[in-house]
Amino acid sequence: MKVVVIGSGYVGLVTGCCLAEAGNQVVCVDHDAGKVAALRAGRLPFHEPGLDELLAAQLQAGRLSFETSIARAMRHAAVAFLAVGTPSQTNGSANLENLLHCVHELADTAFEDCVIVVKSTVPIGTGDHIEKLLNAKHGAAAGQPRVRVASNPEFLAEGRAIRDFRHPSRIVVGANDEGSAQALAELYAPFVERGASLMFMDRRSAEFAKYACNAMLAARISMVNELAGLAGSLGAGMEAVCRVLKSDPRIGAGYLQPGAGYGGSCLPKDLRALIRSAQEAGEPAYMLRSVQRVNRLQGRKLFDAIRDHFGGGLRQRRIAIWGLSFKPGTDDVRSAPSLALIHALLGAGATVSAYDPVAMNAARAALGDTATVFGESALNVCEEADALVLMTEWEEFKAPDFEAVAARLRGGVVFDARGIYRPGLLRRHGLQCHRLGERPAGLQAGKAVRAPLAPNPQAEPRTPG
Ligand SMILES: NC(=O)c1ccc[n+]([C@@H]2O[C@H](COP(=O)([O-])OP(=O)(O)OC[C@H]3O[C@@H](n4cnc5c(N)ncnc54)[C@H](O)[C@@H]3O)[C@@H](O)[C@H]2O)c1
């Protein structure tokens, strides 16, 4: 099948490469000429494990090419995906400017019978609007068939995007006509043969399903964070509580790790957009608003814990940060909790030295001309620092040489925002370890007698998007 993917970012490029791998002839479009030139030369504009090899293989096989022009790409296309970004506007709604720009370009383009598929996350009803726009111009032109628009929201998670696309837990197709449903069923047949389930529904339900999933995931994260805070105040240990929660099949094991709050390119913006849609529909959305509020407070709690540790003042304090991307496996720093923390620390007069194995360039660009110092290694940023804050659980941070950390850290204190360190182990190296949801010193908890912790057999899924 000839497939066009408009927007060659985290979602579009993975979609294009994986559909080419499945035997389709794919043209990926992007309006960023520099990005297109790099991709044609086999160079990735961002970090995604395994994507460079896949890109090289598909270029080599001649199944994948790159274009800056939608008109050139659309010749003979049977399916065209829209995968451009839909970031937040100041009022919270999704910014559809880039998407609609592409739609207008499509409306001015001569193409044959082609299903237009919206893969970007868009507010409910956007597919209806796009179909109307396209048919008012393109579909109305003499000899042109009526344009059909389907919704096929994406659920891949950065850092494991190729695996997720190759073996999706489900493929959601929202189609209001038989023809587009059939075209997508044909395109995804190889994935279904490998075990993926195709879920057909109407277009609005598919659009909503994407927001509903992200709302549920965000709610779990805010709930466990709120419970962790409560556990700390009441003298309970959240780690033990989490083991109980995770062992309950009705609750499930995923997204139950207290931390610095959710971030990334999807959850925060999708929550905001859904709340905005609710507002426009006259719905109060109490839960969604609370989820968002708890998340905002969670980032603040980490900052407060650091500030309180230093007696309320951070002036002249040097804080080392491990991890800048919003989660491991990606260089994406969009709405990363690390950036919010850095801004707060700098605002309070601290100096910040930060290190991340892959996201330093992205963070440098996002932080602009703030005074953040970027170190060459994890140990390097600890030199003369008053505290170390672990923000992203990259593999290299999981079992560091604490002896070497302790030798460099002036303050001897580690704030573990991901809950991966054993405080006892750090204590043996002379380091104090603070974890969110830990009972404050001085609050007596009941004495527990238990066997050593066994690793959790159920792997913890990572934050999506
Ligand atoms: N990133 C994720 O993990 C993820 C997961 C699921 C869904 N989504 C959704 O997928 C969509 C894309 O997200 P992303 O993370 O890939 O965004 P991105 O910013 O990485 O990529 C978007 C790409 O579109 C290009 N673009 C913008 N306007 C264009 C135009 N007019 N013509 C051609 N190209 C244009 C940009 O240059 C960029 O390369 C969003 O709606 C997002 O919410 C993202």
UniProtKB/TrEMBL annotation:
The keyword Oxidoreductase applies. Pfam families: UDPG_MGDP_dh, UDPG_MGDP_dh_C, UDPG_MGDP_dh_N. It is an enzyme of class 1 (oxidoreductase). Substrate binds at F155, L156, A157, E158, K210, Y255, L256, Q257, P258, G259, G263, K327. NAD(+) binds at D30, K35, T86, T121, E158, K269, R334. Its EC number is 1.1.1.22. Residues 444-465 are annotated as: Disordered. Residues 320-423 form the UDP-glucose/GDP-mannose dehydrogenase C-terminal domain. It comes from the Bacteria. The active site is at C266. GO terms for biological process: polysaccharide biosynthetic process; UDP-glucuronate biosynthetic process. GO terms for molecular function: NAD binding; UDP-glucose 6-dehydrogenase activity. It catalyses: UDP-alpha-D-glucose + 2 NAD(+) + H2O = UDP-alpha-D-glucuronate + 2 NADH + 3 H(+). The keyword NAD applies. Pathway: Nucleotide-sugar biosynthesis; UDP-alpha-D-glucuronate biosynthesis; UDP-alpha-D-glucuronate from UDP-alpha-D-glucose: step 1/1. PROSITE patterns: PROKAR_LIPOPROTEIN. Belongs to the UDP-glucose/GDP-mannose dehydrogenase family. This is UDP-glucose 6-dehydrogenase. It comes from Parapusillimonas granuli.
